[in-house]
Write a structure and sequence with these properties.
Blueprint: H1 13-24, H2 36-50, H3 53-58, E1 64-66, H4 76-87, E2 92-96, E3 99-100, H5 108-129, E4 135-139, E5 142-144, E6 151-152, H6 156-172, E7 176-179, H7 190-205, E8 211-213, E9 217-218, E10 223-224, H8 226-244, H9 250-253, H10 255-258
Parallel strand pairs: 1-2, 2-4, 3-5, 4-7, 7-8
Antiparallel strand pairs: 5-6, 9-10
């Protein structure tokens, strides 16, 4: 989910957000739960739509984003929620978010190490809880602005971190969700267009990325912008086309046309 329902009581936010999203789209949804009970309710909601928990296990219409707490720790409530999702056959995205210079080493490779360790730790816990549980390697790692301490999601260093993580996910043969198409600009302006195109292009050129997280986000991911989401869709289409490259065959060589 990209936005938070701040107009309802906090204990109900996740459930209201999920129910609202499922009423308004047939697309896959990625909610979050902060304890086991909330996860159970979210599983019930999704199961009611597809015709029961066994049908949900066969065709999960949701996956759960559950984030470790950098560096190298796991919240009790979030972990218990992850286990509930795993036992129900719901894919769990371990969305790690270390911040270079604050919650991970200032070096980019050190931040990669922290990100990787948190993902593998989450994977081990869920496989012990439910062997064969579907898990997605996730990351929204980046660097901190040394002057302000604010995370910089449009920085080129973020692209370097995620390109390296894409290589790791291929090595582990795990599906992954990595961040790209991001900007620190507070409006969908020239800065936003440059940063979004840069972070998305470098990420997709790394290959092997299954899901890209962060489209539509501006202001260091504090704001979801509808206009930016439309622009990001255009950028993503162009970058995806560029990444396809060219297929060499007689039709594409068009020698007969040249003659």
């Amino acid at each position: 989910m990209s936005v938070v329902a701040n107009d309802v009581p906090a204990p109900m936010r996740g459930l209201i957000e999920l129910a609202t999203a499922l009423r308004n789209t047939g697309k896959h949804i990625e909610p979050e739960a902060f304890d086991a009970r909330e996860a159970q309710y979210e599983i019930e909601i999704a199961a009611a739509i597809v015709g029961g928990k066994e049908e949900l296990r066969k065709r999960p219409i949701i996956s759960a984003i559950q984030s470790p707490i950098s560096p190298l720790s796991y919240d009790k409530g979030s972990m218990e929620a992850s286990i509930e999702f795993a036992r129900a056959g719901i894919p769990v995205v371990s969305l790690t978010m270390p911040l270079a210079g604050e919650t991970s080493p200032v070096t980019l490779l050190g931040t990669v190490v922290i990100t990787n360790a948190e993902n593998l730790g989450n994977l081990v816990i869920l496989q012990f809880a439910s062997p064969g549980a579907p898990v997605i390697y996730g990351a929204a790692s980046t660097v901190a602005n040394p002057r302000t301490g604010v995370c910089m999601i449009g920085a080129p260093e973020r692209s370097v971190i995620h390109m390296t993580l894409a290589e790791l996910t291929r090595y582990y043969q795990l599906p992954c969700m990595l961040a790209g198409g991001n900007s620190d600009s507070k409006t969908p302006d020239m800065q936003a267009g440059f940063e979004k195109a840069m972070t998305l292009t470098t990420l997709l050129l790394a290959r092997g990325v299954d899901i890209v997280d962060g489209l539509g986000a501006i202001d260091s991911a504090n704001t979801m912008c509808a206009e930016a989401l439309v622009i990001d869709n255009e950028i993503a289409s162009a970058v995806t086309r560029a990444c396809r490259g060219l297929e060499v065959n007689n039709d594409n060589l068009a020698v007969d046309v040249i003659r």
